Amino acid sequence: MMRRLKWIAVGALLGLGTLTLTGRAEDAPDPRAAQVRAGAQVFSLVCAMCHGDRLEGVGGPSLSDSAFRAFYEGTTVHGIYNRVRDEMPLDRPGSLTDQEALDVVAYVLRANGVPLPDGGVRADTLDAPVHFAAAPQEDAANPAERAAP
Ligand code: HEC
C-alpha cells in the first residue's frame, strides 16, 4: 500500500515536471518583446512630448506618417538609430544611453509594423533593413499594443 502511494507521488512529480518544462518552452520570452516594452517607456518619458503619445507628432514631426515611412523605407536600422542617438531628444541630444537609443528605435520601428531583426535592435544588427508594413498607419491608435512582435 505504501509502495503504491509512493509511485503515485513520483508519477505526480514527473507529471508536474513535464508540465513545467513544456510551459517553459512555449513561453520562452522573445527578447524583442522585452526590448519594445523598454523602448516604449523611454518613448513616453523622453520623446512623446514632441512626437506624441501615438507617434502622431506634436512639436516634432510624426514618426508614423507616410512621409516618415517613405524617408526610412529601404534604409538600414543604422540610419534611424544614428539620428536618434546623436540628435534626439532635440532639447538634450546625446543624453540617451546607447541601450536606450536601441530600445526606443526598436519601439518606433515596431509601432510602425517594421519586423525587428532576430535578437532585437543591437549594435550588431544595425545593418538590418527597414521595411514598413504595406498599409500606412497615419493614426497609430495604440502603438504599444501593436508593438508586440
Ligand atoms: C524637444 C522636442 C523633441 C524631443 C524631446 C524629441 N524629438 Fe525627435 N525630433 C524633433 C524635431 C523638431 C525633429 C525634426 C527636426 C530635426 O530632425 O532636427 C525631430 C526628428 C526626429 C526624427 C527624424 C524624423 C524624420 O522624419 O526623419 C526621429 C527618428 C526622432 N526625432 C526621434 C525621436 C526620439 C526617439 C526621441 C526620444 C528619445 C525624440 N525624437 C525626442 C523634436 C524632438
Automatic annotation (TrEMBL):
Check the UniProt entry and state the signal peptide residues, or none: 1-25
Q: Where are the transmembrane segments?
A: none
Keywords, ordered alphabetically: Heme, Iron, Metal-binding, Signal
Q: Which InterPro entries match?
A: Cyt_c-like_dom, Cyt_c-like_dom_sf
Task: State the source organism's domain of life.
Answer: Bacteria
Cytochrome c domain location = 34-112
Gene Ontology terms for molecular function: electron transfer activity; heme binding; metal ion binding
Recorded protein name is: Cytochrome c class I
Output the lineage of the source organism: Bacteria, Thermotogati, Deinococcota, Deinococci, Deinococcales
